[in-house]
Sequence to fold (124 residues):
Amino acid sequence: DVQLVESGGGSAAQAGGTLILSCAASGDIDSSRCMGWFRQAPGKEREGMAVIDSGGRTTYTDSVKGRFTISRDNGKNTLYLQMNSLKPEDTARYFCALKTTSSGTWFDARAYNFWGQGTQVTVS
Fold:
């Protein structure tokens, strides 16, 4: 099994500011195909934002492209999301996720096998 723990949220961020989220991964992560960041606001579906595959290739949804950057530090087993130019509409709970299969699309939450507990991001 895989365990994912997000951190970096919890405090209010100002519009136009920058915030960095971290996701610490542990367990059997050698079979990982993709890791991604998702977010979910109350009453809305979970939305994919950024994905990085096992070869380091990244892709982003239009809502965050040019503002957010996904990266990883394999030595620390940690995934990051740097968020620049924050907007109030970025307010949501942010989740780290991992998939071990090639099924589904990169931003299909149903295709991901493992999830963190999430961390709250509030922008005002």
Notes: The two ends are 37 Å apart (CA to CA). The chain has a mean pLDDT of 94. The CA atoms of residues 99 and 112 lie 4 Å apart.
